[in-house]
């Protein structure tokens, strides 16, 4: 038995669509800049002797980069691209 979920089979909820509509307005360079800012902030904190804070801020870079990738994918493919495509074809 095949239990894989195929594209467009299960639509996203309205909360996800709302969040994506706001995040898609941000340019991808915003997330890259935020990642570099967290790295720079971490270096500054490290040089001032605040090692624990530097580790905390430095760990923000990876989530910012992941959010940037997610944002780019939503912009390119949409969250429910196949569902909307099929509804346009049926109309």
Describe the structure.
This protein is an all-alpha fold and 91 residues long. The chain has one domain. The protein contains five helices and no strands. It has helices at 14-23, 28-47, 51-58, 61-77, 81-90. The chain is elongated, with a radius of gyration of 19 Å. The protein starts with 13 loop residues before the first helix and ends with a helix. The mean pLDDT is 82.
Briefly, what is this?
By secondary structure, this protein is mainly α.
Estimate the strand proportion. under 5%
Shape: elongated
Q: What is the N-to-C order of secondary-structure elements (H for helix, E for strand)? A: HHHHH
User: Between the first and last Cα atoms, what is the distance in angstroms?
Assistant: 33 Å
| Total beta strands | 0
User: Nearest-angstrom radius of gyration?
Assistant: 19 Å
Give me the secondary-structure category.
mainly alpha
Arithmetic mean pLDDT: 82
Domains (count): 1
Helix content: over 70%
**Main beta-sheet strand count, sense and barrel state:** none
Please tally the helical runs, counting DSSP H or I stretches of 4 or more residues.
Answer: 5
The unreliable regions are none
